[in-house]
Sequence to fold (1007 residues):
Amino acid sequence: MIRQVLSLTCALTIGVLVVALAGATPSLGAPAMSEAQQKWLKDAQLGPHSPATHDWAAIEAAAKKEGKVVVYSSSSRIPAAAKSFEAAYPGIKVEAFDMGTVDVISKVKEEARARVRTGDVFFAGDPPTVIFEMVPRRMLWNFVPSELVGLIPKEFREPLLVQRLGTRVIIYNSEVYKTPPIKSWWDLTRPQWKGKVQIKDIFESGENLSMMATFVKHADHFASSYKEAFGKEITLDKDCPNAAFQWIKDFLKNDPVFAGSDGDATRAVGTRGQKDPPLATVDYAKYRDVMAGRFVFEPALDVKPVGAVFYQTYLGIIDQAPHPNAAKLMIRWLMGDSRGGKGYEPFFVPGDYPVRTGMLEFPRGAVPMAVLKTKAWTIDPMYAYEHGARILDFWVANQRRR
Amino acid sequence: MAALNPPWSSALHPHLRRLWRAITTPRILLSLGLCAVLIYLVGVPLLRIAWATVTWHPEDARVARGFEEGAFTLFHWKRTFLGAVSNELVYRPFLNTVVTSAGATLMALLIGCPLAWLLTRTDLPGRRLLSGLITIPFILPSWTIALAWLVFFRNSRLGGAGGLFEYLTGVATPNWLAYGPVPIVIAMGLHYYAFTFILVSGALASVDSHLEESGEILGANRWKILKKITLPLVLPAILSAFILTFSRSLGTFGTPIFLGRPVGYYTLATTLYNNLRMGFKASAYILAVVLVALSALTIYGNQRLIGTRKSFVTISGRGLRVRLTPLRGWRYPLLILVSAFVLVCVLVPLLLLAWQSLMLEENNYSLGNLSLHYWVSQGGDRRYAEGEAGLLRSWLVLGAAKNSIALSVITAVLVGLLGLLLGYAIVKGRGTRLSRALEQIAFLPYLVPSIAFGAVYIAMFASPLGPIPALYGTFALLVLVCVAKNLPFSSRTGVSSMLQVGQELEEAAVVAGASWTARFRRIIVPLTLSGFVAGFLLTFISTIRDLSLIILLVTPSTRVLPSLIFRYNEQGFTQFANGIVIILVALSLAGQWLIRKIGKKEVTQ
Fold:
């Protein structure tokens, strides 16, 4: 019977190859704008049709008519912002989805490919993918509220508006350790921390991949901090072109634990009553769990060669979104005001840094940007895009998979 | 037959006219229509995915430069099988998949077969009740045990709270016992044994005791009879149970991700998922092709192996008579053993999950820590699950429950109907090439492991295809994939219930001048209703708990309970995840009860 099934499959192959081939060309790239896209841009006053100043009364009226806005967000804090938005703009319903960066990106990409238009606001990180895959392919459109243009540095306005800088840090359990138990990223390669560092597999986390790329960009610093940590010059393995690659290799050799999510890793570190808690690389913004009394941990901001890595979280309007005006209102809402503001409130926490200048207040318990800046690097989207695949391959090849 | 005869047909050549008439008979029309549906649901998607492995995708910009999207290339195959990452990308996951699947299958057989014999052929007390309890895992999600395992055995490697085992004994669970291949095999084995049990006890129930008694008369002892007569008779059933279980476990996603990821133990299914999520589509599709090939090979091997031995005549003209083997002094020891098994492997895991969902602080096993917080709280207290509202108040859970019910009911209805139509077309056309072809294509989905099926459907329905719009992110896509995957079973039940309907009944109706639709509605459907209900039930059960099939296709608006469990588990909200398992089990049981009740009423009417 199987032989028949197989021969049948072959017959089918020939029979429907034509159909398959006809529909097989992917249409993700959009070098030429379609008529529908041009019309949408004109109606929504985006892209080439953006006005110099925004008439918010008109936008609000149009948004009320649209009645709804759909937000794809990487943050579990989006429901709070959605709630305050609905209270501020009665009549506009918010459908806010908290999905994690990887899923937000794949959803927007797949919907563009499928020409399904449901999402309005894109709200997630992963700079290389956003800037080099999605914006050039016109899956996202930039929208900067006109009154903010003077307040936000250009690098955070173009090519896509940045809502805040997130911060990747190492955290430790502060109930067990009164002071940071590590001084360097190289300490994570020591036997003491074998099997005791939680990290989301870079295979599942664009942020961590970009962080590794940033390490590679600053490989020299990893070489000098090796000397600081071990008291001797680093010797590189044959397959490691520089000290950062060597760090990645040694780190993987030390059996890190792949967490399901940042939240999961945070829980692993910060749960009270542990005897031998692990370390983790997560978002500094998880510190809000400490403020709320849920966990006990602190960030190790003085580790060498870098205490924190900043990454951009973007806001954009999804191509041919069905509710562009409500999307604009939402973006303005999420950008907050000079004191934080209702819309920015969920993000007004230690570890998240607003990009607008002239903030009058800072979140309670936060390390000021001016201080952290001196010990942090910022992800370079271009560099991460160009080196990401190579690092990923290196990562996979050196993983102690079982 | 009521063939259509358009006025212009008289102008045609007689051969053509005959052909036209043949084609337009209801059975042929139906068969051709079903063939088209099946090709669309299974054949075309398989081709699309194969094609997608040899073309460039926009996302490939990260691994290669200077290509043209959609153009032909062997780059992905070379990278996957010969590149620097091939070991971790395909070879090791392949090995892990084979090891865990084979281990789980073996374990399922070792548990399922003796249980089947004990509960169908011996005088063990309380067989009815025990049979019911023993098949419970079949209606649970396959990863229930995995979650319960984590509640019990998790250790400091995952940080946070230790498991119950550590709490009770003070001994840290070693990694090999907490995560990786050992628990994966056990967790999967403890699920799939129920499947083996059902298959083997079916075969055992039809073995006539006369055959065994002949052995007894010739002086063989009980073990010899078991070994020389009973076992060989059910060996084909055991072998096919092995193959069916093995090919099922190949595409399992939940258990390996929950228990494998903490120690970097990946199978083909979990590697496929990772690749797809990071946008490495071609690699993911290649892994899907590998899975399909592996599964097809296994089933082919099975056919070669037992092809000739399938046809023992166990049911003779004298009517079936089953004599139960007396267990004598073993009755109560075995009863205790079986009951203990049911308790430890079926009931305790569920209780553990229920208990864990009631624990306010995760690592605190004291009674004072019990709370309904994760079930009924208004939310807002950021100390617990970031202030999310309790399960019974959460619109997320409510929405997912609605979607789950809608998905499984709609799928079951469609699959039941398709099964009936397929059964009719296959049985009425017995012996014709068309009937055979239909039967074989209906079997094809079985060759495609669940997670690969999901990948196939993404490749197929991500962009519009001719007149068919893209189905990405729609509920319809979930329904389609579930319908397609469940067709092999329903076509089997369709065929077997259709075989019971005598030809003469329909012929009489033809003589009386009933149209085809009237015959189908008034004769075929009522007579095969019990078969329809059985097929409906099976599909309902397997759809409502499924994760592997839909994990790649679910989007936030089409979330179902299993995908929500997965998400909460990833986020570390384990109380929520475990609580939803309980909700899911309750829904599944309630659904079955309702279907049985309605089904019975309809059948007796």
